[in-house]
């Protein structure tokens, strides 16, 4: 089935779509749909919370998310720029670069939900991060005209 849809089971999922289409819910359900695939049993972390943590703790947050645990970063792209002691940092961009190293060296997967498309992701995180994301993720997109399930 994965071959039919050109999904590489050795990569994570980048789930993209409009607000309220069910991306986060689907990622919460995924471990129950494929319990035999341990790499989909990732901890769901809102990107905003990670940046808020960076603002308080600093660069240790980036190191913490570069570890070998599987994560699902929720709502990538809506988080603000991090600021610690007056220094700005694109926290999620730095984390994604670190996760890329873990992916290449140890096969550690990352999953992501986002409302942004590929062009918007590149604008926010740069060409370098976008290039690495192509290697790390299977892109699965909801149609842009899907209705908001929240009402």
Q: Could you characterize the architecture of this molecule?
A:
Helix content is 40%, strand content 21%. It is α/β, with parallel strands linked by helices and 151 residues long. A hairpin with a 2-residue loop joins β4 and β5 (87-89). α4 packs parallel to α6 (127-136) and α5 (118-125) packs across α6 (127-136). It is globular and about 50 Å long. The termini are far apart. The model has no long low-confidence stretch (mean pLDDT 88).
Question: How many helices does DSSP assign?
Answer: 6
Mean pLDDT: 88
Q: How much is the radius of gyration in Å? A: 15 Å
Structural class by sheet pairing and helices? alpha/beta
Kindly report the spatial arrangement of strands forming the biggest sheet.
2-3-6-1-7
Percent range for helical residues?
A: 40-55%
Spell the H/E element sequence.
EHEHHEEEHEHHE
Work out the number of β strands: 7
Largest sheet: 5 strands, parallel
Describe the oligomeric state of these chains in a short phrase: single chain
* Low-pLDDT residue intervals, each spanning 5 or more residues: none
Taken from the alpha-carbon principal axes, the silhouette is globular
How do the helices and strands line up, and which of them pair or pack?
Elements: E1 12-16, H1 23-33, E2 43-46, H2 47-57, H3 60-64, E3 71-76, E4 82-84, E5 87-89, H4 91-106, E6 110-114, H5 118-125, H6 127-136, E7 137-141
Parallel strand pairs: 1-6, 1-7, 2-3, 3-6
Antiparallel strand pairs: 4-5
């Amino acid at each position: 089935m994965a071959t039919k849809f050109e999904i590489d089971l050795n990569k994570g999922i980048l789930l993209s779509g409009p607000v309220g289409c069910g991306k986060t819910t689907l990622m919460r359900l995924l471990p129950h749909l494929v319990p035999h695939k341990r790499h989909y049993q990732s901890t769901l972390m809102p990107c905003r919370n990670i940046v808020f943590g960076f603002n308080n703790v600093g660069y240790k947050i980036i190191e913490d998310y570069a570890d070998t645990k599987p994560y699902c970063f929720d709502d990538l792209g809506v988080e603000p720029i991090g600021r610690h002691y007056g220094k700005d940092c694109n926290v999620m961009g730095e984390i994604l670069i670190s996760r890329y190293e873990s992916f290449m060296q140890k096969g550690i997967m990352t999953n992501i939900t986002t409302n942004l498309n590929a062009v918007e992701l590149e604008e926010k995180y740069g060409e370098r991060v976008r290039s690495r994301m192509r290697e790390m993720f299977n892109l699965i997109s909801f149609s842009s005209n899907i209705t908001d399930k929240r009402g």
